[in-house]
Hints:
Rossmann fold, two-stranded parallel ribbon, binds NADP nicotinamide-adenine-dinucleotide phosphate, oxidoreductase activity, NADP, C-factor-like, oxidoreductase, Fungal_SecMetab_SDRs
Amino acid sequence: MDQALCRSVLITGANRGIGLGLVEGFLAASPCPEVVIATCRCPESAQELQKLCKQYSNIRVLPLDVVSESSIKETVKKVEDIVGEKGLNCLINNAGINVLGSLEDVTTEAMLRTFETNTVAQLMLSKAFLPLLKKAAKQSATMGCHRAAIVNMSSISASIGLAKSNDIYHTIYPYRISKAALNMLTKCLATDLKLEGILCIALHPGWIQTDMGGTKAPLKVQDAVPSIISLLAQLSEKDNGAFLDWEGKTLPW
Ligand SMILES: NC(=O)c1ccc[n+]([C@@H]2O[C@H](COP(=O)([O-])OP(=O)(O)OC[C@H]3O[C@@H](n4cnc5c(N)ncnc54)[C@H](OP(=O)(O)O)[C@@H]3O)[C@@H](O)[C@H]2O)c1
């Protein structure tokens, strides 16, 4: 990478798993963003992030519970102070949950909780950060993460086109339905924000060994992150509104 992928990036759910891996990947990139904003519910207990703060001067750790409107509001204010008139280049909506539920045992509570965290929060975050993304978009011409982008962490399990009766996802009704709705949100945002120069994609990061991905996953965070970051660096206008996997392949909706 000759040019930094973006000047500023914000990642939600950055205290563990893929979010933490992305923070580490951005900080290690050369050249790296001017500021990497890692958000999580509880910065005081986010030991890995605290370690990174001692190692790098361009990381900021902010508290953010993605399902709390007041927390989102507070975070936007703090991010505004950090990025100033340059705005925010890249919002990575990574935080997510997987509440198990098959057809037999799924509950209303599981559905609503998952929908709130995996879909509604991404809409509210995109809406709240829009003024800062617009500011950033005004400072460049071509679309991409270097300008202004929203990256929604989706999942291949949410592909309606790939769903079949014997697939492995029959125990995760809430998760796959919430991510399918997130895909629609992505498409809505991509359409609405195109004229503003803000790119939006849904990304399947790969099946990765994390608390959510489990130990049987074929990929480790450190294997997938360089591919994800290189994919983000290459995004352009043609990718706006796409559903991509970590290797850049287009997935069926
Ligand atoms: N791992 C995979 O194989 C895989 C595959 C496809 C898609 N994905 C997607 O990739 C993203 C990251 O997954 P992961 O595997 O890294 O999951 P993970 O290890 O379970 O981590 C989830 C992260 O989301 C955070 N989070 C959950 N609810 C939150 C809330 N209300 N506010 C703020 N943060 C919240 C968690 O914070 P706490 O520590 O505070 O709980 C944690 O940092 C998710 O959107 C997931 O759906 C993962």
